[in-house]
Design goal:
heterotrimer, A mainly alpha (283), B mainly alpha (288), C alpha/beta (382), A: 283 residues, mainly alpha, MetI-like fold, 13 helices, B: 288 residues, two-stranded antiparallel sheet, 14 helices, 2 strands
């Protein structure tokens, strides 16, 4: 009876935990199978434990190459998208201007467009125009394009949450616009900008659909996996996926700690900060 | 002079980003629209013939895949809502100090590549796996298989897009004024009544945002159908993908994607009219 | 030195980019893009650094692990070997936008099946070969492959390997599958796959129904495609696949498939076997070609010549187990591994291939063929 009551009282929490288990199962499977020792080309049946593929994680040249391409692409995407998106966010939050609705629309609609349509439209554009060769450049253009909107959202939520009086104070103290921006605004929104950059990096490195349309002969990490699926995915893919997962977690923890520190330093409206998730996930 | 300069400032800030979005989003859409009205092949070249018949052909030939995409995405969205609401609720109100950890659990899948996650389900659900044996025992896998069935694709979509449902729900539940809930409890006494009359209506914006953010990408997805489905699970995304990248039948492919875009855009504009553009950016009140 | 000034620079850069694009869009309609192509001005492949980089696109598991390294050592080249050809149609779809622009994506050799080789040639996507650079090919190409209908003088194509399309079966799970029509036995519902290349799947199905594929009419192609569509639609056929059918056979998701003769040897499961369909198989070759825009034809010739040395070729044959186009391989293998020299999959006897036919395309002009192809594409998605 008591057990039943306990179950009833905690039913929502139990459903929640089950749902989270559901979210984590595939990741666990990926990690476990990175230690598998398959007899043939296919890594889908448990055949024995080995760390051989961890030791040889970068042993497949093509795979390593594709990973480096992805990292390079994600890096430049993060820079490009963060600059464009941050400027947009500042304009949207700080200024009144004519055409705001149109600007909002232009930022929101790409996010609400199915990836397959974005990929198809960009390919139509690149093919018709015939200026860019399909490859790294077209990938970079596409990735910056679809990341900008997400950057805007993250930085924007950060900007809305901060005290403008700090800037006014700086202005009163005689700082010009640029100095105020550099000394007051930027440090305050820096955590937001950092998580935006982090997010666009993650979006870029994970993108398959849009890249598949616009890659030409360039092979990114997801594209490699897609091709490899035809002939058997090497265990190294699981190893690298697990590594990426671990690295992202560490990076995220670093950002969180950094953020906490910055927040302490700024000591701005503590109750609001506490309510915000450390990393804003665009929703 | 300075006032003019000040008035121009937002435009200088907006220009780079908006121009980028304009050239690489709006203009490509235009080119896709144009291509959808042309006829030809890559070997003969394409010519503008105002071939509206491309649309008629595309829609009649692939109505099955269109309907299937909306059906799969619809079911997956409902499942996401049914799983996601209790989950978001649990995180917001019941998780205590485990809140961040649970939130992390929700976003964790984002940190492994989408393709690998989907392929991982293929491993979990392969015909000889214990999971499938259990499902078969429970009479849930009639042919002794899960892969290459509707259920597999819907499950994959549900899995991959669940975070997009949970996060906006969580955001709107978090924002809920707890005093209202207490007042509701005083008024209606029963927990169910409080939920139906207070919590649910107040989190409606979150629910709608979640539905949009789940349904739209799910309807256009082809990765799940490719890996987890068979020929009978092909969605409209698979058709567009194969026409663009394998058959190189660009005109009809463009017509198909344009149609998909149009359908989704109508739904979206309807929502924006009802909630405003800022709602999609994650907060309800218009900035200033 | 304000933030505005900086952003203004950015704006200028983006505007300049935009302006240049608009100009190009208005002015340049010539050359490539979506404006068509043919082979009216075909060139002979020359140039490149014989000691430089070589990039090859081939099918998965179509070469052993050592040959490339040994070739690089012998020739002083640096070879990038990519197995990114998963099906002729996929690969063509991927390459066409590039090739129609005279760009091969850096590839010097591509390997595709006969009909696709012909198609690419007609579109002007491949270059003529300078035969003086490949003496081994002249000397060792087996006579039966010297004058194929699509390239009577082997002007632009050199066979890589030949093979048969037939049945690949899990003999432990479906021992009674002998004919293509056995795939449509209800007891194997959802446990069989077909190949996503029309010229692999449809002629075999026609032969199984007593139609001679070489004389099949347009209507018979369409009828057979309709039969396939029905079996795809009712769930009998689990998937229509490229190379990945082997994967499903290995983990038992699938018990029988239309597949390629050499594929069974590289699996880890000895129960996966090639079964010659009772009504015959289809025989094809995959061909090396030098695409337009290939940066290094000189190294490409070197490679072709290298693999046409019987000793070198025997090493590849030993691994891939397909039918080798190079004379003298049997003699080399007879010394090294007599079992292989007598293997029907590598050196098929006349008895083994008595009902087989050369891979065929649908009859009619380009337009008609395309209609049949479109019907097949639609049958694939149920």
């Amino acid at each position: 009876m008591r057990a039943w009551r306990w179950l009833r009282e905690n039913s929502i929490l139990i459903i929640g935990l089950l749902a989270i288990a559901y979210m984590l199962v595939p990741i666990l499977v990926i990690a476990v199978f990175s230690f598998n020792d398959p007899p043939g080309r296919y890594n889908f049946e448990w055949a024995g434990f080995t760390t051989e593929y961890w030791a040889d994680a970068f042993g497949i040249e093509e795979l390593t190459e594709s990973l480096l391409t992805s990292i390079r692409l994600a890096f430049f995407t993060a820079i490009g998208a963060t600059i464009l998106g941050t400027l947009l966010a500042i304009a949207l939050v700080r200024y009144q201007f004519f055409g705001r609705r149109a600007a909002n629309l232009l930022i929101v609609i790409p996010m609400a467009t199915p990836e397959v349509v974005i990929g198809a439209a960009l390919l139509s554009f690149f093919l018709t125009l015939d200026v860019f060769q399909l490859g790294f450049t077209t990938l970079l253009i596409a990735h910056i394009m679809f990341s900008v909107s997400f950057v805007v959202i993250v930085v924007r939520s950060r900007l809305i949450g901060f005290d403008r009086r700090l800037e006014e104070a700086a202005a009163d103290l005689g700082a010009n616009a640029f100095t105020t921006f550099r000394k007051v605004t930027l440090p305050l929104i820096a955590p937001g900008v950092a998580s935006a950059a982090f997010l666009s990096f993650a979006l870029s490195i994970d993108d398959f659909v849009i890249s598949n349309f616009n890659s030409g002969s360039t092979v990114t990490f997801p594209l490699y996996i897609f091709g490899a699926n035809q002939r058997g995915i090497p265990v190294q893919v699981n190893v690298i996926a697990t590594m990426l997962f671990a690295v992202t977690i560490i990076a995220m923890l670093a950002v969180i700690i950094q953020q906490k520190r910055a927040e302490k330093a700024a000591a701005m409206r503590p109750e609001e900060v506490a309510n915000k998730p450390a990393i804003s996930i665009p929703v | 002079m300075t006032t003019l300069r000040q008035r121009m400032t937002p435009y200088w800030l907006l220009a780079p980003g908006l121009i980028w979005l304009f050239i690489f989003f709006v203009v490509p859409m235009y080119y896709m629209g144009e291509l959808s009205l042309k006829t030809g092949t890559l070997t003969t070249g394409y010519e503008m013939t105002w071939a509206f018949s491309n649309y008629a052909d595309a829609i009649t030939d692939y109505s099955t895949q269109f309907l299937r995409a909306f059906y799969f995405a619809g079911v997956a969205t409902i499942l996401c809502l049914l799983i996601g609401y209790p989950l978001a609720y649990a995180i917001a109100f019941k998780s205590g100090r485990w809140k961040n950890l649970m939130l992390f659990g929700v976003v964790a899948p984002f940190f492994t590549t989408y393709l690998i996650r989907t392929i991982s389900w293929k491993t979990i659900l392969s015909d000889s796996s214990p999971v499938v044996s259990v499902l078969e025992f429970l009479q849930l896998a009639p042919d002794g298989r899960v892969l290459a069935t509707n259920a597999a694709v819907i499950a994959g979509l549900t899995y991959n897009f669940l975070p997009f449902m949970v996060l906006p729900l969580f955001a709107s539940l978090e924002r809920l004024d707890r005093r209202l809930l207490e007042a509701g409890q005083d008024l209606y006494a029963s927990a169910r009544q409080t939920f139906l009359r207070v919590t649910l209506p107040l989190t409606m914006p979150g629910i709608i945002a979640g539905i949009l953010l789940t349904f739209i990408p799910a309807a256009g997805d082809y990765v799940n159908a490719t890996f987890l489905g068979g020929p009978d699970q092909a969605m409209i995304g698979n058709v567009i993908q194969s026409k663009y990248l394998v058959v190189n039948d660009y005109s009809e492919a463009a017509a198909l994607s344009f149609t998909l875009m149009a359908i989704i855009l109508v739904g979206l504009l309807f929502y924006i009219k009802f909630a405003g553009t800022e709602a999609l950016m994650g907060d309800e009140e218009e900035a200033k | 030195m304000s933030v505005m000034k900086k952003s203004r620079l950015l704006v200028l850069a983006v505007l300049a980019l935009a302006a240049s694009m608009v100009l190009v869009a208005c002015g340049g309609d010539g050359g490539g893009g979506l404006s068509g192509s043919d082979n009216s001005d075909v060139t002979t492949a020359t140039g490149g650094d014989p000691q430089g980089n070589l990039k090859i696109s081939n099918w998965p598991l179509y070469i052993d692990n050592a040959t490339i390294k040994e070739f690089d050592q012998a020739a002083g080249t640096s070879t990038t070997y990519t197995d990114d050809v998963n099906s002729n149609t996929d690969f063509f779809g991927k390459m066409q936008p590039l090739l129609s622009n005279g760009d091969s994506g850096g590839r010097d050799i591509i390997v595709v099946t006969d009909w696709m080789a012909e198609k690419m040639w007609k579109l002007g996507y491949v270059q003529k070969l300078d035969k003086s650079k490949i003496p081994n090919v002249e000397k060792n190409l087996i006579p039966s492959l010297q004058n194929p209908a699509f390239d009577p003088n082997r002007e632009y194509s050199v066979p890589w390997q030949s093979g048969m399309t037939g049945l690949v079966v899990r003999t432990d799970l479906a021992p009674d599958i002998k004919s293509i029509n056995d795939l449509f036995d209800p007891k194997y519902k959802g446990k069989v796959t077909l190949l996503d290349e029309m010229r692999d799947t449809i002629p075999l199905m026609m032969a199984a129904d007593g139609i001679n594929p070489e004389e099949a009419t347009d209507e018979q192609w369409m009828d057979t495609i309709a039969k396939m569509k029905e079996n795809v639609g009712n769930g009998q056929v689990r998937k229509v696949t490229g190379n990945d059918y082997i994967q499903d056979l290995e983990n038992g998701n699938v018990v029988a498939a239309i597949g390629w003769s050499g594929d069974t040897t590289q699996t880890s499961n000895p129960n996966i076997k090639y079964v010659q369909p009772e009504q015959g198989c289809s025989i094809w070759s995959d061909n090396m070609m030098i695409p337009v825009g290939a940066p290094n034809p000189a190294a490409a010739y070197k490679f072709m010549n290298y693999v046409y040395d019987p000793e070198n070729q025997a090493q590849i044959t030993e691994y891939v187990n397909y039918v080798s186009p190079v004379a003298g391989v049997k003699e080399v293998l007879a010394k090294k591994d007599p079992a292989l020299a007598n293997d029907n999959l590598i050196f098929p006897s006349e008895e083994f291939t008595k009902n087989c036919f050369a891979q065929v395309s649908p009859p009619g002009d380009e337009q008609q063929v395309q209609e049949v192809e479109q019907a097949f594409e639609n049958a694939k998605i149920g």
